[in-house]
Amino acid sequence: MYAVAEPLGENLVVALENKVVSVHGDAKELSKKLCSEFDWNPDFSKKIWSFGPETRETNCIVDATRGIQYMNEIRDNVVAGFQETCRRGVLCDEELRGVKFVLTDATLHADTIHRGGGQIIPATRRVLNAALLTASPRLMEPIYAVEVSCPQQAVHTVYEVMNMRRGSVVEEVARPGTSQFNLKGFLPVLESFGFTEALRAATSGTAFPQLVFDHWNVLEWDPMQEGKARDLVRAARRRKGLPDADIPPLERFLDKL
Question: The whole model's pTM is what?
Fold first, then answer.
């Protein structure tokens, strides 16, 4: 099998997460909505095989092959391999978000016994993992929305503590009739451990933060290159006890006919 991976598009992913776009309704309605609102190719929108993983459904697989026999026979097994790939991505065994897989070609054995789940599911996993590795994948990190209440003299300190942890303040409002300020901003969850203690220590206990999950953010660093993102991948793989301490090489997923 041959496949490519590409971004699904943040607008569509958010619409799927908020159930603005339903994947369980009428297929024609879904196809029409994807074409009119998200600029999808009409041929692709009519040949979506599945959305996954089952819990979130923020990735999809499309059959873009033409004139290949037995494709409908292997559909269920391909979808099973796709769902497993969505649950356990190739980088660090984490759930995928915002990926569109497109099957472009396949060479299938004429004998039914060679088109069973034991052959198709592992093959699907391999081709989708290879497609991910060749598509400039990125890690995503969860971001907290932070609200801090503090006196005026501590405002500058709050900015400093946030900046040291890759955070940002987007709104600063004075409470009428008091010397208190409300600051709103965003902070990566990865940098939030010990944030409350650090903030209270820096402001002598006068700042009170509240953190709530807000959104996901794409890390700008390339995990395929040496750097912070690659270090994060290695740390995650070691923590999970995966057999490889690093991202598996692309050659492992490529088969030659």
Answer: 0.84
